[in-house]
């Protein structure tokens, strides 16, 4: 009887041990499978991060996406997102990827014609916002009261940052007659504008005669035919007997470099160096005046903090060559040149490829050009676009200098 009881206890103990062993075995197998999966993930990511070849890296991430991602994969969006991110990694506010769909609009803008509200924009990296460089004269934006320095918060209630400038630009454009809503930050005040899109003729070159037979020419960008239009406007004023000239480049955001050089060619002596273009290998390309000057009058150029790019090329060349004096405030400081490359698939890359130096080999980028006569606008004005001529201290100083 005693032996039977001992045997029964022994069976119970063995059963408990067996159950514990089976439980341990099952748990171990489960943990092993989980460990294998985690190790596999870690290995894939570790291999990815250690591989500096971008193509291999993207392939490995694609393997992970194919294996684990729950949603549908849009191949074109993946490719475009990868390219945009890659280009943005350069951290250059002027270099950008342009999709195939965006290229036509971009080229139309460069040539000076598009449907939109008429604003020039730049990336304000400090505020991480899109900044209005200037509204185009007589455009819906100017008529509505949008000003240089305004920051775009949203387009049609969708928020955008500086990195989204191309996307926001395309959202602002649209069918002629349709409307777009812009939310603007001006200082600490938020303003909303409902604007109707129009066909915009960028850059009308405008001119008039001021007191003392002083000619005045103003335009807001350098686009296709700007130099030709400038020459026509000058000849029109010349026939009316002007004896000196003011070129107003305030709030002129730049544009096509060759147009600026052609205007400089009208004024500089033949053979004068107008510009040095320097590439990444320090190779210099020298741009010179090719013709005898057709404009020999005394010249004052008006500038401000929104005078940028090709405007600075023209102002810097004429200042260094002694062909013009600059009046106003320091320029923006964009001393780099971009070229647009069209890729086989129809997309494009606007890439910073050169920096430029003035004839005296002065650096402009992130520095700007100091005026010969520094003149601020009255504190209550802040904007040359809305000021009356009599209150425009910069213009009045230029007139005084030319008397």
CATH architecture of the largest domain: Alpha-Beta Complex
Assembly type = single chain
State the separation between the terminal residues, measured CA to CA.
134 Å
Number of domains: 3
CATH classification, class level of the largest domain: Alpha Beta
Radius of gyration: 32 Å
Helices, by number, come to 10
Secondary-structure-based class equals alpha+beta
How many strand segments? 19
Q: Would you list the SSEs in sequence order as H and E? A: HHHEHEEEHEEHEEEEEHEHEEEHEEEEH
Main sheet overview: 6 strands, antiparallel
Spans where pLDDT lies below 50 across 5 or more residues: 9-51
Structural account:
With 403 residues, this protein is an alpha+beta fold. It folds into three domains: 2-73, no CATH class; 115-200, Pdz3 Domain; 202-402, Alpha-Beta Complex (2-enoyl-CoA Hydratase, Chain A, domain 1), CATH 3.90.226. Helices cover 37% and strands 25% of the residues. It has ten helices and 19 strands. The protein has helices spanning 2-50, 54-68, 75-88, 100-111, 140-144, 165-172, 226-239, 257-267, 310-320, 393-402; strands at 96-98, 113-116, 119-124, 129-135, 151-155, 158-159, 179-186, 189-196, 198-201, 206-210, 214-218, 244-248, 273-278, 284-288, 299-303, 325-328, 336-342, 348-357, 373-374. Strands 3, 4, 5, 6, 7 and 8 form a six-stranded antiparallel β-sheet that branches. Strands 10-11-12-15-16-19 form a six-stranded mixed β-sheet, sandwiched between helices. A hairpin with a 3-residue loop joins β10 (206-210) and β11 (214-218). α1 packs antiparallel against α2 (54-68), α7 packs parallel to α8 (257-267) and α8 packs parallel to α9. The longest helix has 49 residues, at 2-50. The chain is globular and about 75 Å long. The model is unreliable at 9-51 (pLDDT under 50).
């Amino acid at each position: 009887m005693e032996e039977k009881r001992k045997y029964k206890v022994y069976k119970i103990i063995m059963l408990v041990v067996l159950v514990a062993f089976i439980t341990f075995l099952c748990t171990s197998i489960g943990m092993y499978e989980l460990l294998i999966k985690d190790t596999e993930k870690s290995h894939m990511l570790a291999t990815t991060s250690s591989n500096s070849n971008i193509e291999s890296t993207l392939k490995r991430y694609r393997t992970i996406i194919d294996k684990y991602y729950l949603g549908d994969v849009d191949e074109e969006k993946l490719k475009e997102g990868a390219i945009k991110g890659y280009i943005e990694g350069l951290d250059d506010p002027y270099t950008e990827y342009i999709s195939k769909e965006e290229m036509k609009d971009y080229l139309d803008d460069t040539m000076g014609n598009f449907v939109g509200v008429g604003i020039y924009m730049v990336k304000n990296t400090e505020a991480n916002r899109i900044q209005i460089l200037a509204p185009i004269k007589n455009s819906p934006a100017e008529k509505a009261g949008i000003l240089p320095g305004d920051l775009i918060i949203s387009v049609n209630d969708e928020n955008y940052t500086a990195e989204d400038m191309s996307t926001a630009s395309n959202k602002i454009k649209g069918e002629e007659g349709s409307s777009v809503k812009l939310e603007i930050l001006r200082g600490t005040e938020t303003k909303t504008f409902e604007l109707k899109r129009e066909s915009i003729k960028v850059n009308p070159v405008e001119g008039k005669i001021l007191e003392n037979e002083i000619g005045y020419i103003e335009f807001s960008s350098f686009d296709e035919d700007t130099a030709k239009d400038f020459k026509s406007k000058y000849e029109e004023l010349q026939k009316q007997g002007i004896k000196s000239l003011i070129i107003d480049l305030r709030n002129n955001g730049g544009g096509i470099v060759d147009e600026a050089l052609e205007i400089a060619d009208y004024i500089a002596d033949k053979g004068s160096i107008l510009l040095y273009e320097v590439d990444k290998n320090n190779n210099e390309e020298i741009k010179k005046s090719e013709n005898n000057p057709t404009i020999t009058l005394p010249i004052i150029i008006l500038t401000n903090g929104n005078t940028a790019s090709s405007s600075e090329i023209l102002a810097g060349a004429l200042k260094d060559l002694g062909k013009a004096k600059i009046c106003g405030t320091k320029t923006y400081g964009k001393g780099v040149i971009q070229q647009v490359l069209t890729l086989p698939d129809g997309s494009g890359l606007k890439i910073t490829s050169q920096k430029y130096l003035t004839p005296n080999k002065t650096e402009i980028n992130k520095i700007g050009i100091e005026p010969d006569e520094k003149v601020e606008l009255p504190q209550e004005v802040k904007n040359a676009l809305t000021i009356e001529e009599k209150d425009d201290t910069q213009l009045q100083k230029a007139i005084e200098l030319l008397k």
